[in-house]
Design brief:
alpha+beta, nine-stranded antiparallel beta sheet, nine-stranded mixed beta sheet, 18 strands, globular, binds pyridoxal-5'-phosphate
């Protein structure tokens, strides 16, 4: 494998985990080499988008262990997502065990330390039985597949350009806070449209007033003030990113920075020194510019590099993940 030149795309690996839910129970679950899913043409997932997912990575640490990062938070978030879409919960302990099993079974696809690549894990649950009237399916599948992904900043670090979107991502009291496929289906047109106009991503403001910052289609915001304080947007319709929560902890406990989690007005962003997008894929991608209907906000960190604090946060968290820096208790789950 040419680990360094891998992108972020699906590559079939030998084994995936499947557990089926029927008559009110999840069955034992197996590893299988069959990557095909056969379901009714009228399955809940196909007709009414009854599906949720997670995303996490397995990787090799400096001392050669294969680990995952805070998978318990993915398990818990998937339970929250399940409740909101009337999907039966997949128990946390079983989720963790299934993740371990998939990584072990696809061991030769876990990239070596230093490659910057990792084995991306995609747990998902979907309604598999037929539903015509609008109601939850009676049967489900929980699956995890694994696919190797390359280093995120392959061509070097290029700060992103965002636009403030006129499309909405998540309604108040809607499903923005859960990891559901439906939140992504409706973002596809918005992202295609952003790309057409030369932007990398959409900044979604709050749909009710369009005056507060929420998030992008797949990452949370982290801002840095001119006096090195971390500020992250607070709203009930933002997906609670594991990376963002970890970075805020690191900022406070490892770097001694003040952290504020509060509603952030769109009109405030021009005062920030740095801006980043956080998620499992990149940890933090720096944002260089935000375009608000023609008004351009250029962050002082510019279009060529990560801001000073963004870089420190990035290095500290990746250091914790790879075992170069002591991790807080319970953050690293060793597989072997
Ligand atoms: C998955 C996701 C994130 C990032 O969450 P992580 O747990 O850090 O990977 C942020 N926003 C949205 C909408 C997401 O779906």
């Amino acid at each position: 494998m040419d680990w360094e030149n891998l992108g972020f795309g699906y590559i079939k690996t030998p084994y995936r985990y499947v557990s089926e839910y029927k008559d009110g129970l999840w069955n034992g679950g197996i590893l299988t080499d069959d990557d095909k899913v056969v379901i009714s043409e009228c399955a809940g997932v196909l007709q009414y988008a009854q599906t949720i997912f997670e995303g996490l990575k397995a990787y090799t640490t400096q001392d050669g262990r294969i680990v995952t990062f805070r998978p318990d938070l993915n398990a818990e978030r998937m339970i929250d997502s399940a409740r909101r879409l009337e999907i039966p919960e997949f128990p946390k302990e079983r989720f963790l065990d299934a993740v371990d099993k998939v990584v072990k079974a696809n061991k030769s696809f876990v990239p070596p330390y230093g490659s910057g690549a990792s084995l991306y894990l995609r747990p998902f649950i979907f309604g598999s039985s037929a539903v015509l009237g609008v109601k939850p399916a009676k049967e489900y599948q929980f699956r995890i597949f694994a696919t190797p992904v390359g280093p995120y900043f392959k061509g070097g670090i290029k700060p992103l350009t965002l636009r403030v979107s006129d499309f909405d991502r998540a309604a108040p009291h809607g499903t923005g806070h859960i990891k559901a496929g439906l939140n992504y289906a409706m973002s596809l047109h918005a992202i295609a449209d952003a790309h057409e106009y030369g932007f990398d991503e959409n900044l979604y403001p709050d749909p009710a007033t369009r005056t507060y910052v929420e998030e992008t289609g797949g990452a949370n915001f982290i801002f840095v003030t001119k006096d090195d304080k971390i500020v992250t947007p607070k709203s009930d319709s933002i997906l609670p990113s594991v990376t963002r929560r970890s970075l805020c902890y690191v900022a406070e406990k490892y770097l001694g920075l003040k952290v504020e989690h509060r509603p952030i007005k769109l009109s405030e962003i021009e005062n920030f020194a740095e801006c980043g997008l956080c998620g499992t894929a990149a940890i933090i991608s720096p944002v260089g510019k935000i375009n608000d209907h023609g008004k351009e906000i250029l962050f002082p960190s510019g279009m060529n590099e990560m801001g000073k604090i963004t870089k420190k946060l990035y290095e500290t968290l990746t250091g914790i993940q790879t075992g170069k820096i002591q991790a807080p208790k319970g953050w690293i789950r060793e597989i072997f």
